[in-house]
């Protein structure tokens, strides 16, 4: 990124959303000495990559939330952004507080079902407790049905079966192929093999009927579930791992003409939002043709911050380039599958690199705090 720039007069960057993209952007702005405000509706960063482990291991959840204020001090503001007024360059929070920006980085990410995501506005303690309570629900169930065989569902099923091998775990998926379609077929096949080795039962090509009417995340003995193909099964606990949606509420009013159909923000190669040279989109809410990943959100953040610095000093902006897919799947704490730059990795390497700690160390280091 080049040398540190001292605080530039008239420059105040507002970062909306403190997920993987937001904390990376804020940390880089801080180390560059630029004036910034990071806004998130919660008081702690959620390392949701480790949320599935926090769902099965008692005591783990406290490692998956990292308080913002200790890292960013007064540069962090807790609040829900309700809208952005692009004419006055103001971000408006619930309750009416307004914060002005010279440059804006939008990184509001995606929402999805618990436990993969935790979307509730809650204190650090309440958030941690929600996962501890959920561990008890899993412990109380003799059988668990995981709905959705994308990467989250696959990891969830593997986590449960690894921690509680005696439980019956069924993974139901509407398609035949598991995991993200961007992964190499051999990696997807390997994920399936690991699940079968662990004893997870697969029900592929079936969709749960009336999912919205079933009890989720709470143990209810012998709940009957039917599929669109007329098959029924009983289970004690149903966990939904489908349905991520772009979190566009913060910017819909100000940027409706720059939004793709799914709510993501259309960006140019410099990650500037279409029609706005001082507004950048980073992470899951940026409309970029690549898998939605924390890893990518961090790369986007570096480009956005770099380009803010370059634009202030009149230099040519950097472009973001998508590369071959790198994705690692933790199949419980003792196994893993994945690929690096389009090349399949041995299982032991993924286990060492990702599955044991789920890259928690990286976020605690980035936040300059000590992991409990
Ligand atoms: C279970 C699971 C496992 C995953 N594993 C991996 C993995 O191993 N590797 C990987 O690279 N990726 C993984 N991902 C994907 C990864 O989590 C996302 O790509 C990443 O979180 C995107 O980061 P982000 O900063 O764009 O958004 P998010 O992490 O979604 O953060 C958005 C933030 O914005 C805040 N926010 C939203 N709206 C508002 C508002 N109106 N006002 C204030 N604040 C707001 C939210 O509170 C949140 O903190 C996984 C995802 C899931 C669900």
UniProtKB/TrEMBL annotation:
<dbReference type="GO" id="GO:0008637">
    <property type="term" value="P:apoptotic mitochondrial changes"/>
</dbReference>
<dbReference type="GO" id="GO:0004174">
    <property type="term" value="F:electron-transferring-flavoprotein dehydrogenase activity"/>
</dbReference>
<dbReference type="InterPro" id="IPR036188">
    <property type="entry name" value="FAD/NAD-bd_sf"/>
</dbReference>
<protein>
    <recommendedName>
        <fullName>Ferroptosis suppressor protein 1</fullName>
    </recommendedName>
</protein>
<feature type="domain" description="FAD/NAD(P)-binding">
    <location>
        <begin position="12"/>
        <end position="298"/>
    </location>
</feature>
<keyword id="KW-0274">FAD</keyword>
<dbReference type="InterPro" id="IPR023753">
    <property type="entry name" value="FAD/NAD-binding_dom"/>
</dbReference>
<comment type="similarity">
    <text>Belongs to the FAD-dependent oxidoreductase family.</text>
</comment>
<dbReference type="GO" id="GO:0043065">
    <property type="term" value="P:positive regulation of apoptotic process"/>
</dbReference>
<comment type="function">
    <text>Putative FAD-dependent oxidoreductase.</text>
</comment>
<dbReference type="GO" id="GO:0005739">
    <property type="term" value="C:mitochondrion"/>
</dbReference>
<keyword id="KW-0560">Oxidoreductase</keyword>
<keyword id="KW-0285">Flavoprotein</keyword>
<dbReference type="Pfam" id="PF07992">
    <property type="entry name" value="Pyr_redox_2"/>
</dbReference>
<dbReference type="GO" id="GO:0050660">
    <property type="term" value="F:flavin adenine dinucleotide binding"/>
</dbReference>
């Amino acid at each position: 990124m080049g040398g540190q720039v001292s605080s530039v007069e008239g420059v105040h960057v507002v970062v909306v959303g403190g997920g993987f993209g937001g904390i990376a952007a804020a940390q880089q702005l801080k180390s560059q000495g630029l004036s910034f405000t990071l806004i998130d509706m919660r008081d702690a960063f959620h390392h949701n990559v480790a949320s599935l482990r926090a769902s099965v291991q008692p005591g783990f959840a406290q490692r998956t939330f990292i308080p913002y204020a200790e890292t960013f001090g007064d540069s962090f503001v807790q609040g829900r952004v309700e809208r952005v007024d692009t004419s006055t360059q103001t971000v408006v929070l619930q309750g009416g507080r307004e914060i002005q920006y010279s440059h804006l980085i939008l990184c509001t990410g995606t929402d999805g079902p618990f436990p993969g995501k935790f979307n509730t506005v809650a204190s650090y303690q309440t958030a941690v407790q929600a996962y501890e309570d959920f561990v008890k629900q899993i412990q109380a169930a003799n059988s668990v049905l995981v709905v959705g065989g994308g990467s989250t569902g696959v990891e969830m099923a593997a986590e449960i079966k690894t921690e509680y091998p005696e439980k019956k775990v069924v993974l139901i998926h509407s398609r035949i192929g598991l995991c993200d379609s961007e992964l190499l077929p051999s990696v997807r096949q390997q994920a399936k093999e690991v699940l079968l080795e662990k004893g997870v039962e697969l029900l592929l090509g079936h969709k749960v009927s009336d999912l919205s009417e079933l009890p989720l995340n709470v143990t209810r003995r012998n709940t009957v579930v039917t599929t669109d193909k007329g098959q029924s099964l009983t289970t004690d606990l149903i966990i939904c791992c489908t349905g991520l949606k772009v979190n566009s509420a913060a910017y819909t009013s100000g940027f409706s003409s720059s939004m793709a159909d799914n709510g993501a923000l259309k960006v140019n190669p410099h990650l500037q939002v279409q029609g706005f040279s001082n507004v950048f989109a980073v992470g899951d809410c940026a409309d970029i043709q690549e898998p939605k990943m924390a890893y990518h959100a961090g790369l986007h953040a570096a480009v956005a911050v770099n380009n803010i610095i370059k634009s202030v000093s009149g230099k040519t902006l950097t472009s973001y380039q998508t590369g071959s897919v790198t994705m690692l799947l933790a199949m419980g704490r003792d196994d893993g599958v994945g690929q690096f730059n389009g090349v399949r990795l041995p299982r032991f390497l993924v286990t060492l690199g990702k599955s044991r700690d789920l890259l928690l160390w990286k976020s605690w280091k980035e936040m300059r705090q000590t992991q409990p």
